[in-house]
């Protein structure tokens, strides 16, 4: 799988936004009505973060988790859209961007076609291939 910075950045941005939104919601007075949104936002953040980690590592399991991430991001986006607040709509938009990125991950080749593609993984790009052995 060829590493693309925008894929990683989108996953991390979604994780960060959903974490922040869950925190914001947990401070509201009507927190009981926001439980589902809070939990979905936290689930979305955790999954996006984990897909980012697997993606950077070049794990063969990235695509497997990306499928799950798509489902959870979709639920989170739908719940946020249901709320119709401006901030909630921003989160929904971020989740939808993440869904598109996860779809891109699913379309990526699992095995590199050539030696030149191997050199495009994050560890090699950073000159840190020894990181995976330490």
UniProtKB/TrEMBL annotation:
<protein>
    <submittedName>
        <fullName>Four-helix bundle copper-binding protein</fullName>
    </submittedName>
</protein>
<dbReference type="InterPro" id="IPR044543">
    <property type="entry name" value="YHJQ-like"/>
</dbReference>
<dbReference type="InterPro" id="IPR005560">
    <property type="entry name" value="Csp_YhjQ"/>
</dbReference>
<dbReference type="Pfam" id="PF03860">
    <property type="entry name" value="Csp"/>
</dbReference>
């Amino acid at each position: 799988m060829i590493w693309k910075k925008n894929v990683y950045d989108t996953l991390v941005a979604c994780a960060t936004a959903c974490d922040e939104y869950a925190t914001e919601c947990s401070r509201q007075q009507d927190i009981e009505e926001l439980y589902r949104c809070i939990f979905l936002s936290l689930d979305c953040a955790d999954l996006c973060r984990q897909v980012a980690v697997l993606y950077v590592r070049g794990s063969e399991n990235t695509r497997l988790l990306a499928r799950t991430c798509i489902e959870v991001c979709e639920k989170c986006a739908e719940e946020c859209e249901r709320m119709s607040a401006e901030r909630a709509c921003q989160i929904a938009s971020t989740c939808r961007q993440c869904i598109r990125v996860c779809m891109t991950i699913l379309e990526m080749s699992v095995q590199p076609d050539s030696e030149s593609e191997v050199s495009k993984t994050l560890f090699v790009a950073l000159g840190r291939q020894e990181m995976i052995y330490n």
